Amino acid sequence: MKEKRQIQIAPSILSADFGRLAEEVRAVEGAGADVIHVDVMDGHFVPNITIGPLVVRAVRAATGLPVDCHLMIEQPERYIEEFKKAGADWISVHYETCPHIHRTLCAIRDLGARAGLVLNPGTPVSAVKDVVRAADYCLIMSVNPGFGGQSFIEFSLEKIKELKVLISSLGLNIPIEVDGGINRDTIKEVARAGAEIFVAGSAIFEKGDYKEEIDTLRALAQAG
Ligand code: DX5
Ligand code: ZN
User: Which of 42, 55, 144, 206 is the most buried (most CB within 10 A)?
Assistant: First the structure.
């Protein structure tokens, strides 16, 4: 029998209409989203600049769903408290931005948020074998971070499988989140590889019917 999985769909507001942000957040919540994914970019770690705690506060006010702040910024430890105060429930930081990643993950937990550990496509799973236990979820980037609408990098599937094996071998139960290029064509394989939380930006917000898209993505993931 197949292991029962808890599939979570996390629309990324990066592809939303920012002029109507609260409305967009309420629309995906009404359409069945499980988590709101917020991409924070600083123009240093990644080439793009997006949003900060002020916008997170507005998202927080618009939804009862968990707010997942994905920090693509240098020295994220300087800002985690501000993001938590703005209403983030989950805060993830990149392995590549944190020389003291264990300390940063512990600091996120100490603030009362769920701590996420993110790996870029170029970072091997083996790099996090010791610190993964300090994370409440682990995010595999399946594109190079910075922009929505990029194509899924195929070798991410192997990384998800490898991470799943690592997590089980440590006797842990840490969900794997995947971010980048998730759509109707890719989600099933990604779920089969072992992911449970699916970030999707363009696949949802570029469609007219958010409910139909979220339902379809969820059904495909369940079938994976
Ligand atoms: C990319 C961001 C993603 C992005 C995904 O750096 O972390 O969350 O919004 O966009 P899609 O789903 O369009 O690939
Ligand atoms: Zn993201």
Answer: 42
Question: Chain-wide mean pLDDT for the chain?
Answer: 97
Question: Rounded to the nearest whole angstrom, what is the distance from the C-alpha of residue 38 to the centroid of ligand 2?
Answer: 7
**What pLDDT shows up at residue 5?**
74
Using the predicted structure, report yes or no on whether residue 2 has a pLDDT greater than 90. no
| Closest to 25 measured CA to CA, from 75, 65, 53, 54 | 65
What are the tokens at 153? 């990098």
Residue 116 CA to residue 70 CA, distance in Å, equals 8
User: Rounded to an integer, what distance in angstroms lies between the CA atom of residue 91 and that of residue 87?
Assistant: 10
What residues contact residue 60 under an 8 Å CB cut-off, 6+ apart? 67, 86, 87, 88
Extract the tokens encoding 174.
């840490």
> Is the pLDDT at 97 greater than 60, yes or no?
yes
Residues with CB under 6 A from ligand 1: 12, 14-15, 37, 39, 70, 143, 145-146, 148-150, 179-182, 199-203
d(CA 23, CA 118): 29
Cα distance between residue 121 and residue 58, in whole Å: 31
pTM of the model as a whole: 0.97
Residues paired with 41 in a beta bridge: 72
